[in-house]
Amino acid sequence: MPVTGLFFLPNQGADSNPTQDILNRLTAHYSPTPAGSWTLSHRLFKGTPSSTPAPINGPEKSKPPGPRYLQILSLSHHSPKTYVAITATHAPSQTRVGTPASSNISAEAISGEPATIISIPQGASSEEFIQLILLKFGPLWQARQMLNVKEGLAFEIGDFRVRLGEVKQGVGGGAQTGRGALCEVEWVGGEADEEDWEGGGALIAGFWEGLGIRGARKVFDVPGLTEGEGSARQWCEILRVRG
């Protein structure tokens, strides 16, 4: 299974352009070969109090469970699947709220309770599922955000495949707000198992550090999972609302 790392660099103001900043660094430090384009669509729903299980009796009763999230993710390079992830409830001390931007450890790794992930066909089936959540399950799931990447750029750079795109928030066709830049760095020099994961992650970390970019949130892939599910888990982690 390939080793990948995700980096999100937020906008810092009206005049900031983190996507162009990363692109400038890539072309200045490496010799990228264009490798097509890619797209992303992501919807996030937060569980309402009525959908959250009541705390159990005993020592943990003073720690009410944290919120649950439902995420619907489509990536053009993982077509024809759309991924649906539902996070488990966690005590407040187990959530990612307040986690430093430099952390590359997911909330699931901390809690030991991975999200439940299923896949459905892209297209009509995924749109029907979204409408089902919006129209029939509104009392359980509150819509929080819609994110997309349109016409993202892909490059081949030695043993790495890099995808870069501007993240925008809002309904397609309407007013959208730029949130920042997403960059996926995939090491394609070989396959990695759990024993080699740290080595592959170090190569990706070194590649990113070579760009000299600071302030990005980082999420590395989750070992021990199938390729598609591991990538979906990684993307859902970095796209989930913080705070």
Helices and strands in order:
Elements: E1 3-10, H1 18-29, E2 33-47, E3 69-75, E4 81-86, H2 107-111, E5 116-121, H3 124-136, E6 141-157, E7 160-169, E8 177-187, H4 197-209, E9 217-220, H5 227-239
Antiparallel strand pairs: 1-8, 1-9, 2-3, 2-6, 3-4, 4-5, 6-7, 7-8
Family: Belongs to the Mediator complex subunit 20 family.
Main location: nucleus
Subunit structure: Component of the Mediator complex.
Name the CATH superfamily assignment: Hypothetical Protein Pfu-838710-001
Structural class assignment: alpha+beta
Distance linking N and C termini: 32 Å
Helix percentage: 10-25%
Organism: Stereocaulon virgatum
Protein name: Mediator of RNA polymerase II transcription subunit 20
Subunit structure: Component of the Mediator complex.
Subcellular location: Nucleus
Task: Name the features.
alpha+beta; 23% helix; 35% strand
Describe the structure.
This protein is an alpha+beta fold. The protein has one domain: Hypothetical Protein Pfu-838710-001. Helix content is 23%, strand content 35%. It has helices spanning 18-29, 107-111, 124-136, 197-209, 227-239, and strands at residues 3-10, 33-47, 69-75, 81-86, 116-121, 141-157, 160-169, 177-187, 217-220. Strands 5-4-3-2-6-7-8-1-9 form a 9-stranded antiparallel sheet, sandwiched between helices. Strand 3 (69-75) and strand 4 (81-86) form a beta hairpin. The two termini are 32 Å apart. It is found in: Nucleus.
